[in-house]
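seq as requested:
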Amino acid sequence: MRKGLLFVLLLMNFWTTTTFAMHYSPRNVIHGRDQLALGISQILQEYQHADIGVYIKSMKYGDTLYAQNINRPFVPASIMKILTAESALLYLGPEYRFRTQFVTDAKSIDNGVLSGNLYLVQSGDPSLTYHDLVSMMDVLKSQQIQSVKGNVYIDDTAFDQIYGAPGWVARDAHYCFAAPISAGIVNHNCLALQVVPGSKPGQLARIMTSPHYYYPSLQNTIMTKSRHSRGCYIKLGSYADSLALHGCMPKGHYAWGISYVIENVINYNQSLVKNLFKKFGVRIVGHVAPGKAKLTLSKVGDHESPPLRRIVTDMMKRSDNVIAGALFKKMGQVYTQQPGSWENGGKAVQRILSQKIGINTSGMRIIDGSGLSQYNQISPMQLMQVLDFAYHHIGTNYEFISSLPIAGIDGTLKHRMYNIARKVRAKTGTMAGSGVVSLAGYAVSVNKEPIAFVIMVNGRRGTAWMYRGMEDRIATLITQYQR
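struct tokens:
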């Protein structure tokens, strides 16, 4: 018996073991589908100002327990990652790995000189770090390479150069959760820093960096003000190969943590590569520049990502948009044999869902893999079809179900639904500025019945907390259901 089928059986027991299962009194048990439907309807009556879709279905018996607006298209927010995760597991495979390579057109290495061009071929690996590139340089040095007689090219042509998807909110581009989706992702295309005030007003603040990142040269004009100063801020900007920080901060004992989104990915990676070669004492006779590598070149070093199953888990638990974007474009690249893009990524995911799962994709709009786009559209029915397939499909159910956040325990559900901790595994979704809140996944009933649910809300802005409370109440009812 394959591990996926074993996992489904174990999962039913895991969710309901007496170690953490709630001990329901008769008044907490919901007897039958009609009573469950009544309870959910009463909750939804409190939110008539919002468009709400709810679909609840038994994974054991296949019958519908509740349905409202299940064919209406909704903006899904981050539950879009459910489609991305299952599509990637099905199409690329749980053991798929991204590969970053050094390749060369040189015929040999003589007396430490690589007589030719060297290419760093980037694959869009969302897990790639500065440390990984340092390890790749170690491999070069182990081959006694001391000089590159030609140029060092950076090949980021696996993906296109349109870093943000249609429908992304412009102001989000300044935040790391909406960092550029490029083939040359390093540390999620985001830098972390800390700023420490000077010991006296009038002194420059100190910029604290981390060895886990490569930083371009830093220009610091942040002044320390008196302890009770108000209106201080820190502004970041990039100029050529430098990062400028200016503003002020009050004197005190605490550092300010800030992050910087790498907007000009090409320039940053060129600066990073130049610095790495200098750091390792490898001389470049030519230039460091963008350039496409031919497939016939010889490999001189590489780095492989963790397997896709682990990358998907990171994406789902943390609702990681950069991972989602990279998987989306990678599927587009592999499916069309063209540079990965938002357009061919959407085409690939839609066809994977249609051909491998059998979903009717009519009316579905898939713009990105993360759910950041306000132009995404999917119905509760379509999402339920993915959940139903993902639960029963032996080839990927272990990897998919285990990637979902667990209520009250981890991921984006760590601080939600403590009252039914461990009895729900689900993906969250929120676009607070647009009034979009969603929750979709699996719950287990009183009599150990696995139940899939989809809750999608397109409502008023600024009321996300209220809709999340509604979702938690509905999820609680599902766990109290008894057939």
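Confidence is low (pLDDT under 50) at residues 1-10, 12-26.
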